[in-house]
Amino acid sequence: MAKFFGNLNLVLLVGLIAAIALMFGMHGDLVTGNTIGRWLHLFFGVLWIGLLYYLNFVQVPLMPSIPDELKPAVGKHIAPKVLFYFRWAALFTVVTGLYVAWATGYVHQALMLKEPFQMIGVGMWMAIIMAANVWFIIWPNQKKVLGFVDADADAKAAAAKIAMMASRTNVLLSLPMFYAMVNANHG
C-alpha cells in the first residue's frame, strides 16, 4: 500500500478512473462535455487557488526564517515546480470555465455582465484578471527572482516586490471571485 501511495502518477490515474466510473455509473447518459468541463474546471481551480494560498500563506512568509544555506533548495527545486503547476492551473481554470459558459450558452451574456448572468460574469472577469496576473506579472518577475532570467540584485528585489503585490492582489480577488462563482445561480 505504501508503494501505491508513494507513486503520485498512479494515485492520480486511479483517482481519474474512480471519477470516470462514478460519472458513468451514477449518471450514464447524462455525462456530457459540459459536466466533464465543470469537473475539470473545479479540479484546475482547486489546484490553482490551492497553490496561490500555499505561496501566500506558507512559502513566502516562511522564506525569511529559512536558513540561507537552505534557501537554494526552495528557489531551485520547490518554487519552479510550484510555479509550473500554478500558472498552468490558472490557464486551464479559465479555459475550462469559458468552455462551460460556452457549452451552457451564456458566455457572451456573462462576459458582457448582462442579466441574469452578471454574478457569474463578475466572477469570470476576476478569474481572467487573476490569470493575467499569473502569466504576465507574477511569472515574468519570478523568472528574475529565481535566476531564470539575468537580473542584478536590485532588479531581483524589485521583481520580488512586484510579484508579491500581484500575488496578494490575486488573494484579495479570490475571495469575491469565490462568492460570485458560488452564488451565481442563487439569486
From TrEMBL:
It comes from Parasphingorhabdus halotolerans. Residues 120-184 form the Urate oxidase N-terminal domain. This is Urate oxidase N-terminal domain-containing protein. The chain crosses the membrane at residues 7-27, 39-63, 84-105, 117-138. InterPro entries: UCP032086 (IPR016988), Urate_ox_N (IPR010389). Keywords: Membrane, Transmembrane, Transmembrane helix.
